[in-house]
Design a protein that fits this description.
By secondary structure, this protein is mainly alpha-helical. The protein folds into 2 domains: 3-83, no CATH class; 85-126, no CATH class. It has 7 helices and 4 strands, in the order βααβαβαβααα. It has a two-stranded parallel sheet with strand order 1-2. The longest helix has 13 residues, at 47-59. The chain starts with a strand and ends in a 7-residue tail after the last helix.
Amino acid sequence: MVVPEEVFTEAIKSNKPEAQLINNYLQGKVIKVDMDDFIYLDGYVDAGETEAMKLYKTLSADKLLIDDKRGRKIAKLNNISIIGSLGILIYAKQLGLIQEVKPRIEKIINSAVYLDPSLIASVLEISGENHGN
């Protein structure tokens, strides 16, 4: 796993939850991205998302982890295969790396990130965790 420099800078801001943990984990995994090559943009995608898309193309990566709705649309426009945080949770459960996605979804909900209730319901259904909720 690698991350572009701009995403790293955004993620380790002191006001972000788990910033120090992320900083420690990403040491040696940060790459400076050459932004000279062309990527389709819409004027609203931020620098971190732009660098992440460029890095995806540079590395011919399998997937780009991106949750921002507008960023996802731009990634698709650029023929970038995407996965969101909730998709990662489903995959982790399928691999047996985690037992449940629900506690992790609750942690996300309790942060500053908005998740659509219908999306949460779908993820819990796919994960087999919709028992009566």
